[in-house]
Specification:
heterodimer; A: about 525 residues; mainly alpha; 15 helices; elongated; disordered C terminus; B: mainly alpha; phosphoprotein (chain A); cytoskeleton (chain A); cytoplasm (chain A); Wiskott-Aldrich syndrome protein family member (chain A); WH2_dom (chain A)
Chain lengths: ~525, ~80
């Protein structure tokens, strides 16, 4: 039986009791019946007014829309008469380059909601009993929830659905990351050697290529020129994603470096978490190279300095070696990743790590980092070059994030390899720590054989203490900042969700769509990479 | 008997007349209510048709405007109402 929307009030006309002491009962009944009829007519007219009001409002809105449409049509008519085909030039570029027309799609939301309930139903609702006033107990609750929500919560199902959707989007994002990692891993074993070589010899390759064949000074130092050429097509994101889980990658490709040897060219997804995760990992790796002394590092550094400046969103994965250290580091990095990546507020400058340093050096680097963060004296005298971009610093600091958290007690510079493994994902220190990382790297290596072209090459040894104190201060501030940042990021993450079914669904679809894109792109890249 | 019956009869007669009168009124009230319901339904359906036509017209006009004015500054977003 349908719900009665409007009930005309005196339902029964003749059922009122006849008052006592009335002789002509039949007349009495007739009169009372007629009175009830009048009441019924009254309520009927109220409902009729209601109905006509609704219809009138709707028709009015259509009238307004129609009016605006009419105006637009008039304008268009005028404009069309003014069109002159001889005047207008449409180039071929315009046809192709212009953004395709897309009409504004307005989705109706909240169609059946509390606000769109018709009036008579609202009245009927108010006539019902109210739920018990449990809300007066809510100030006494510890967890700041609405007491009434435990009894009856009209938004319960929507919240349930929303949580499910958000969770699904997060899961899909993580899946994407994992797939990329897996793909990178799959391609890893064959690529490591290549990557190492390419990273080292890029510059040399270019120099070689610059000369004519007759003038080339060295015939073939390494077969890498061929590799370098072949790796032209690889994209930096491949590098970074690959590097993330690969302990053995030797070098961080500079972002978007063409010769990067990534085997799995994934499309450069803008997924922030993806970039974050590889970034953190790469930074991790980057931390390693700092500690590394060698000429290889120098070469890598040089290359990186020259190459890796510009692309903040694609920090090439830092590739570190050292099996043992890398293991725990990778795990920490993975864990870190699992946490949804770090907030990528800091612009990413990738400082490619030096070639795999001997393991002892790595912990020293870590400890150096820790020491800097914890304000222990830095062993190496080198200072981060002032020209270091803050992004690079940030990246460096990030690389250390998997390493023991900066607030951890200062470790002695050289000996605390143990610090490396228990790396909790510390917040990315703002930028100064990387300079520290650089300094240990330089300190370890002494002056590298080939002065790094730009920032790295100019590391003064003298004003160590000042820089250190500044760095320490900055690190401290950075830590605090990071907490706030984290909170803000979390809030920011919550905010854009809104309470819109449509927004939530669109986000989920976007994630799924990008996922499918990346999958297909990854497959293609795999074919290309060879 | 006729005299005795007359007042009662008259009363009952009168009562019947009154009841018929009331019945006429109530049945017309029901007709009014019925008419109101059906008017409401038909009006809403026509307004819905109108709405669809309006929306279609609006989209066409958007497209024509875009064509005429050469795609200038066209940034389409998905709007949520």
């Amino acid at each position: 039986m349908p719900l009665v929307k409007r009930c005309i009030e005196p339902r029964h006309l003749c059922r009122g009791a006849v008052p006592d002491g009335v002789t002509s009962e039949l007349e009495c009944v007739t009169n009372s019946t007629l009175a009830a009829i009048i009441k019924q007519l009254g309520s009927l007219s109220r409902y009729a007014e209601d109905i006509f009001g609704d219809l009138f409002n709707e028709a009015n809105s259509f009238y307004m829309r129609m009016n605006s449409l009419q105006e637009r049509v008039d304008l268009l008519a005028v404009k069309v008469t003014q069109l002159d085909s001889t005047v207008e030039e449409v180039s071929l570029q315009d046809i192709n380059m212009r953004k395709a027309f897309k009409s504004s799609t307005i989705q109706d939301q909240q169609v059946v909601s509390r606000t769109s309930v018709p009036n008579p139903v609202v009245e009927m609702y108010h006539r019902g009993d109210k739920p018990p006033p449990l809300n007066i107990l809510s100030p006494y609750r510890d967890d700041k929830k609405d007491a009434l929500k435990f009894y009856t919560d009209p938004s319960y199902f929507f919240m349930l659905w929303r949580e499910k959707m958000l969770q699904a989007t997060e899961d899909k994002r993580k899946e994407k990351k994992r797939q990329k990692e897996q793909q990178k891993q799959v391609e890893d074993p064959g690529r490591e050697v290549k990557k190492v070589r390419k990273a080292r010899n890029r510059r040399q390759e270019w120099n070689m290529m610059a000369y004519d064949k007759e003038f080339r000074p060295d015939t073939r130092l390494t077969p890498s020129p061929y590799h370098g050429m072949s790796s032209e097509g690889s994209l930096s994101p491949d590098n970074r994603s690959m590097a993330s889980d690969m302990g053995d990658h030797s070098y961080p490709a500079s972002p978007n470096h063409p010769s990067q040897p990534t085997s799995a060219p994934h499309p450069i997804d803008g997924a922030p978490h993806l970039t974050q995760a590889p970034q953190t990992q790469s930074l991790d790796r980057g931390g390693y190279p700092r500690a590394n002394p060698p000429s290889g590092a120098a070469a890598a550094v040089r290359q990186i300095a020259s190459l890796g400046r510009t692309q903040p969103p694609h920090p090439p994965p830092a590739q570190s070696e050292g099996g043992a250290l890398n293991g725990p580091r990778q795990q920490s990095v993975k864990d870190y990743r699992a946490h949804g990546g770090q907030p990528s507020t800091i612009p990413e400058y990738f400082i490619p790590p030096a070639p795999p340093p001997p393991p002892p050096i790595i912990p020293s680097a870590q400890t150096a980092f820790d020491s800097t963060s914890s304000s222990s004296p830095l062993p190496p005298p080198s200072l981060p070059p002032p020209s270091l971009p803050p992004g690079a610093v940030a990246i460096m600091s990030r690389s250390y994030s998997p390493s023991p958290p900066p607030p951890a007690p200062p470790a002695h510079y050289v000996p605390s390899p143990s610090h490396a493994p228990p790396a909790a994902p510390p917040p990315p220190p703002p930028g100064l720590p990387p300079s520290h990382i650089l300094s240990p790297a330089h300190a370890i290596g002494g002056s590298q054989g080939e002065a790094p072209p730009t920032r790295k090459g100019q590391m003064p040894m003298i004003p160590i203490s000042d820089a250190r104190s500044d760095l320490l201060a900055a690190i401290r501030r950075g830590i605090q900042l990071r907490k706030v940042q984290e909170q803000r990021e979390q809030e920011a993450k919550r905010e854009p969700v809104g309470n819109d079914v449509a927004t939530i669904l669109s986000r989920r679809i976007a994630v799924e769509y990008s996922e499918s894109e990346s999958d297909s792109g990854g497959e293609d890249n795999g074919e290309w990479s060879d | 008997m006729s005299i005795q019956d007359d007042p009662v009869q008259r009363e009952i007669h009168q009562d019947w007349a009154n009841r018929e009168y009331i019945e006429v009124i109530t049945s017309s009230i029901k007709k009014i209510a019925d008419f109101l319901n059906s008017f409401d339904m038909s009006c809403r359906s026509r307004l819905a048709t109108l709405n669809e036509k309006l929306t279609a017209l609006e989209r066409r006009i958007e497209y024509i405007e875009a064509r005429v004015s050469g795609f200038e500054g066209i940034h389409r977003k998905v709007l949520f109402t």
